[in-house]
Write a structure and sequence with these properties.
With 118 residues, the protein is an alpha+beta fold. The chain has a single domain, classed as 2-Layer Sandwich (Ribosomal Protein S5, domain 2). It has 4 helices and 4 strands, in the order αβββαβαα. Strand 3, helix 2 and strand 4 form a beta-alpha-beta unit. The longest helix is centred in the middle third of the chain and has 18 residues.
Length: 118
């Protein structure tokens, strides 16, 4: 069984990493999220989350970030190893529940067009 933690090593924290991923990474859209991804050359998948003010107030933005982190933490074995992912919330994402976020991020993992990228 894999680890269900979300360590600092699995987070994208530096601004330069976010910018590199936005400029050079591939993009996948769901109804409420934009996912930027690319290989990172490491043996671990890293996650970054951005939620702009247009999504809602601080409470709603932080809730979305918690939900995305929890989905990643529980399903990280399904994410490809050695990739950086940035999940950007779109307007309307604050109204989603845990299962809705889980379903949309699963769309990304199960999309046949992306399987060749991983």
């Amino acid at each position: 069984m894999g680890s269900f933690s979300f360590s600092k090593r699995e987070r994208i924290l530096r601004r330069r990493d976010f910018i590199r991923l936005y400029r050079k990474g591939s993009i996948y859209h769901t109804a409420h999220f934009k996912i930027s991804f690319m290989e990172n050359g490491l043996d671990v998948t890293r996650l970054g989350i951005t939620v702009g003010r247009r999504v809602g107030n601080a409470v709603r933005r932080n809730r979305i970030k918690r939900l995305v982190r929890e989905v990643f933490r529980l399903h990280k074995a399904g994410f490809p190893k050695g990739y950086d992912l940035i999940v950007t919330a779109k307007r309307g994402a604050a109204d989603l529940g845990f299962r809705d976020v889980e379903r949309e991020l699963s769309e990304f993992l199960l999309d046949e067009r992306l399987c060749s990228s991983f």
